[in-house]
Design a protein that fits this description.
By secondary structure, this protein is α+β, with helices and mostly antiparallel strands. The chain contains 4 helices and 25 strands. A hairpin with a 2-residue loop joins strand 2 and strand 3. The radius of gyration is 23 Å and the shape is globular. The relative contact order is 0.12.
Length: 403
C-alpha cells in the first residue's frame, strides 16, 4: 500500500474510503499511476490532506479516516491538468465506509458541442441605467473536457464566450474577476475554466449596468451557443414598452415578492443575436415611480429596492413550471404549478454544488494550479454565497421539519 500520512494534527479513526478512477472518454487508455487526494474539512475549512496512488485496476483506498459528523471529505484527482472530484461527504460510526467512482476525461479544444442548457436574465431599473443580472448554465455534450482554444490577445486558453453587450459597464462576476478567470479578447468576454462533460458542469453568474440617455435603451448580445431554456424577466414600470426579439415569447406578467416582472421564455436552436428594446424608462435624474406609488399606497407593501451593486447568488432555476431566483440577496420563488418543495430541492442542490465547487477550488490550490490570492478571493466569494443559501434553507419550514 502506498505511503500515506496526514499533513496536519488531524486525528484519524475507523473510517475507510475506497474507490476507482475510471476513464470517461471512449477508446482512451485508463489512467496509470494517478495520484488521488483526500481533503478533510471542519467548518468548511481544510484541515488535512491525504494522498495515495491508484493500483493497476484504478482503485484507491484511504484508511483510518475520522467518522465524526463534523468532518467532511472530498476526494479529487488532477488528470491532464484538469481537476476532477467527488461531492462532499461525511462518515459516521453507523456508516464508516464510502465507495466512490470518479471519472476523468481526455481533453479537447473543440467547442462545437457546448451549449447553454439554461440562461436567465433579470433586468431592473435605476434612473438612467439598466441593471442586468445573468445566470448561464453550460452543458458539454462530449465525452471530453473542453480546455478551450488559444486566442491572440489572451495568455490563457478560453472556453465559453459570454453574451455581454458591448455597452455594459460595472461588470461583476460571482466567482472570479475580469483579467483573472475571465478575459476580454477583442471586446468579447470569455471564461477560461475547463468545461467537463455533463449537462450542468459550469454555472456563470454575472451582473452589469447599461447606461442610457433620454428614456430608451436597447440591449444587444450575441448568444454563441444553442440554449435549451432562455428566460427574461423585466421589472415593470408604468407605461414601459418592451420588445424582445424572436424566438422568445411573452408569457405574461408575474409578481415576485411584490415586484412585478414581465416575462419572456423560449429556446434558441442555434447561435443568434438577441435584442431587447425598452422605452419609457426612468430618465437620468428622475424619480422611480414605483417608489412614489409605494409611498402613496395606504396599505403597507414592500417598496422596490434599488438593484444591488454586488453580484447576487446564482439564479437557481429548475424549470419553467417552478423557477427559483436569487435576486439582490433574497430567495424568490416564482410559482407556476408547484409548491415550495421544489424550492427546497433546488436550494439543497445549490448548496451541494457550492460545497463541491469550494472543495474543487481547494484541490486546485493544493495542486498548485492557482495562486494564493486567487484562491482566497474566490473562496471568500463562494463561502458568502453558501452562507446565504444555507441561511435561506434554515428559514424554510420543510427544511426545519426534516432536519
Amino acid at each position: 500500500m502506498p505511503d500515506q500520512r496526514w499533513e496536519s494534527s488531524y486525528t484519524g479513526g475507523e473510517g475507510r474510503i475506497t474507490g476507482r478512477i475510471v476513464q470517461g472518454t471512449a477508446g482512451a487508455a485508463a489512467p496509470i499511476n494517478q495520484e488521488v487526494t483526500l481533503m478533510a474539512y471542519t467548518n468548511l475549512m481544510p484541515v488535512s490532506v491525504f494522498t495515495t496512488t491508484i493500483d493497476a485496476s484504478g482503485r484507491f483506498t484511504f484508511e483510518q479516516a475520522a467518522t465524526s459528523p463534523d468532518v467532511a471529505y472530498y476526494v479529487g484527482a488532477t488528470y491532464a491538468d484538469v481537476a476532477y472530484g467527488s461531492e462532499l461527504f461525511t462518515l459516521s460510526a453507523a456508516t464508516p465506509t464510502m465507495e466512490l467512482t470518479i471519472p476523468v476525461y481526455e481533453t479537447t479544444t473543440e467547442i462545437d458541442q457546448l451549449r447553454f442548457n439554461r440562461v436567465q436574465w433579470v433586468i431592473d431599473h435605476l434612473p438612467g441605467t439598466l441593471r442586468v443580472r445573468e445566470l448561464l448554465t453550460v452543458a458539454n455534450n462530449q465525452d471530453r473536457t473542453v480546455i478551450g482554444e488559444a486566442l491572440e490577445g489572451s495568455d490563457q486558453t478560453v472556453t465559453v464566450a459570454l453574451p455581454i453587450p458591448a455597452e455594459a459597464i460595472d461588470l461583476e462576476f460571482q466567482d472570479g474577476a475580469l483579467g483573472a478567470r475571465y478575459v476580454n479578447v477583442n471586446g468579447v468576454i470569455y471564461d477560461t475554466t475547463p468545461i467537463r462533460p455533463g449537462a450542468q458542469d459550469r454555472q456563470v453568474a454575472l451582473a452589469y449596468s447599461i447606461p442610457y440617455s433620454e428614456t430608451g435603451a436597447t440591449i444587444v448580445a450575441d448568444i454563441a451557443y444553442p440554449v435549451d431554456t432562455f428566460g427574461v424577466l423585466v421589472a415593470d414600470l408604468p407605461s414601459l414598452a418592451v420588445e424582445v426579439s424572436a424566438p422568445l415569447e411573452n408569457v405574461g406578467n408575474q409578481t415576485v415578492q411584490h415586484v412585478a416582472y414581465r416575462v419572456w421564455n423560449g429556446a434558441l436552436a442555434e447561435p443568434t443575436q438577441l435584442s431587447i428594446t425598452l422605452q419609457n424608462l426612468i430618465p437620468a435624474g428622475g424619480v422611480d415611480p414605483r417608489l412614489a406609488q409605494a409611498q402613496s399606497t395606504p396599505t403597507p407593501i414592500r417598496s422596490v429596492d434599488a438593484p444591488s451593486s454586488t453580484i447576487p447568488p446564482v439564479f437557481a432555476g429548475i424549470a419553467v413550471a417552478a423557477l427559483v431566483l436569487v435576486i439582490g440577496g433574497g430567495i424568490l420563488y416564482w410559482k407556476y404549478s408547484r409548491n415550495a418543495v421544489q424550492t427546497l430541492y433546488a436550494l439543497r442542490r445549490e448548496k451541494e454544488r457550492l460545497l463541491t465547487e469550494i472543495a474543487t477550488l481547494d484541490n486546485r490550490h493544493d495542486q498548485g494550479d492557482i495562486d494564493d490570492e486567487t484562491w482566497s478571493t474566490e473562496r471568500v466569494s463562494l463561502m458568502n454565497l453558501l452562507r446565504e443559501v444555507s441561511d435561506t434553507l434554515e428559514q424554510m419550514p420543510q427544511s426545519r421539519r426534516r432536519g
